[in-house]
Amino acid sequence: xxxxxxxxxxxxxxxxxxxxxxxxxxxxxxxxxxxxxxxxxxxxxxxxxxxxxxxxxxxxxxxxxxxxxxxxxxxxxxxxxxxxxxxxxxxxxxxxxxxxxxxxxxxxxxxxxxxxxxxxxxxxxxxxxxxxxxxxxxxxxxxxxxxxxxxxxxxxxxxxxxxxxxxxxxxxxxxxxxxxxxxxxxxxxxxxxxxxxxxxxxxxxxxxxxxxxxxxxxxxxxxxxxxxxxxxxxxxxxxxxxxxxxxxxxxxxxxxxxxxxxxx
Length: 264
Known about the structure:
The chain has 264 residues and is α/β, with parallel strands linked by helices. The protein contains seven helices and nine strands. A hairpin with a 3-residue loop joins strand 7 and strand 8.
């Protein structure tokens, strides 16, 4: 399992890696930007190999000082693409920034399984409670509503083990092959639910004949339909949301494709 630790500079990424591994494998410094490139750290846990990719902190393009930081940021995006699960770190002591939102959008567009890791919680828990903060993140990081949230204090290794356990669960979900019969039973339930967002188009009502899973990581489902053009973004979001409720993949992204049943 490959875990990419992503976030702004000085959010505690390298500290989290060291807490996971239990040794000083990555340079940790109070100076922002110490990690200038992606670093792979491999370790064994419960008989399984885990590769943690510690990345350079991302910041606004206008503030990238030199070519080393430019290549570090480029490798960060590559690290997200090669990861099985992304640990997206947020600093609990500051507001979610435009950089954070940009990272979230990229993770969403890449259909990556993700844990939002709220770090330095020991410094913020006196002025905020987890429930309120979760609501805040849901509003500002819209694309990652499916992602579970974990609260950590990496300097003290608090809740780090829970993050690893949760990552293993997400990896299990995103690599799951759903039996075709179970998948189509879920679609039958969805088809029976006429919702206001489903509109009759020029070609009639959108119809789903059957569906099949064609890939994992992300879970990718191909629907055979009457007219793919009738399945707009709102309807697809509705279908994905219901699939998360009906199938054991409720915390990972689902990539939904549509093809005319007449196509070969």
